[in-house]
Amino acid sequence: MTAAESMTPAQAAAPQDDAGDGILGRRHRALTLGIISVVSLIAFEASAVNTAMPVAARALDGIGLYAFAFSAFFTASLFAMTLSGEWCDRSGPLAPLFAGIAAFGTGLVVAGTARSMWMFVAGRGVQGIGGGLVIVALYVVVGRAYPERLRASVMASFSAAWVVPVIVGPLVAGAVTEQLGWRWVFLAIPVLILLPLAVMLPALRALPPGPPAGTADRRRILLALAVAAGAGLLQYAGQDLTPWALLPAAAGLALLVPCIRRLLPAGTFRARRGLPSVVLLRGIAQGSFVAAESFIPLMLVTERGLSATLAGFSLTGGGLSWALGSYTQSRRRAEPYRERLMSLGMGLVALAVVLMATVLVHGVPVWVAGASWVFGGYGMGLTISSGAVLLLKLSRPGEEGTNAASLQTSDALGSILLVGLAGVLFVSSGGGSVTTAAAGSAAPPHAFAAVFAAAAAFALVGAYVATRLAPREAAGRGVTSVPPSGDPGA
């Protein structure tokens, strides 16, 4: 066993100092700490929202829009990621990074002061714009500020920055929700962002200029805007469920279908072998997992009577096992079995969702919820990280950036569509009748069962798609034929 193979997950994620000038060396320390702090705050917000959301939705009499509060974030970020990429290429990452952080903080304030569920959803959308701008800008910062030998360590630190928030986020958010109110979960985070910004600002200003870039690709920005608008219209139609909802549904499909086909690799929706199936699988994996996870705290609060703190804490094991799954697939001896690992990962996600559904039966111990999500998180760690590795392996030289953008688009779109579908199933099954905690009402168990059944079914579809990840070999030499994005065959 080599030294690399014997490393623990914590050691693998820890920043390594190379030749005295690593990512925590004097040259890069301020920027590294600032980046990790920003990522940690975003991660904390993500875990805190799952804890506070059931209380917020019931307080605002908005359980019927519960799924919309999640999907609005993904819808807005879908557009913002493409915008940020074009903005960074044109004028560098500093402006989109700070604009994104400002939008993220503004969205938190809007959500925290909301007097209606629609205002809360709007705040979540503004947060999504900020999140999409920030995540792409941070990747560009890494590319320009760090030498190639240090970039792997920086990316490992990105993953490590999620570990602590996943552990403490639900506990802190639950305690704040119960003691001070759910609004403070949103209102406190913007203040915390100021410190990492102050730490990293001098280093950001000293970034070397990027290569000369032409004008922004307005076509891709407009396509992304059309995709986001189409997804939003579909979600609105799904929440309405009246004959009039057919109009926004038709408009949403008219925008979404042709535009997304031009943003993703050809053959994606037919699960063509190789890169298209990698992109498709990422969207299915992300969407099925998030769709189920979004309703777990609500189910545990309304069906099993858990506090917001305990309900949010039930997801903690999944975050930790996700990191372990990511570490497992990174081991050298796992490389020949990567496609099988991804199929296994999706099978574990399906198993986790089915086990979670059994918690709806009151005779089943409630701890099964936390235990089941450990399996789901481990499966996602195997699948998501392996997808990124395969994407780079199957990309032609010079197309890595475009293909990576397609992968992120698939992630966001999968979350939008499947969370939206979960919301439709939940509301149409009577779940939207939940009002306030004081009313003592609860969604019928079959409303949650419908959500979990759909999520498990899509996870099984993902397990099948994972069998199509290996590309066909050309002339027996393993040459991969990857059609460009925008081909009508998508």
TrEMBL record:
Pfam families in the cross-refs: MFS_1 (PF07690)
Membrane topology: Multi-pass membrane protein
InterPro entries associated with the record: MFS, MFS_dom, MFS_trans_sf
Compartments where found: Cell membrane
Segments for region (Disordered): 1-20
Keywords recorded for this protein, A-Z: Membrane, Transmembrane, Transmembrane helix
Protein origin, superkingdom: Bacteria
PANTHER family assigned: MAJOR FACILITATOR SUPERFAMILY, MULTIDRUG-EFFLUX TRANSPORTER RV1634-RELATED
Protein name: MFS transporter
Species of provenance: Streptomyces nondiastaticus
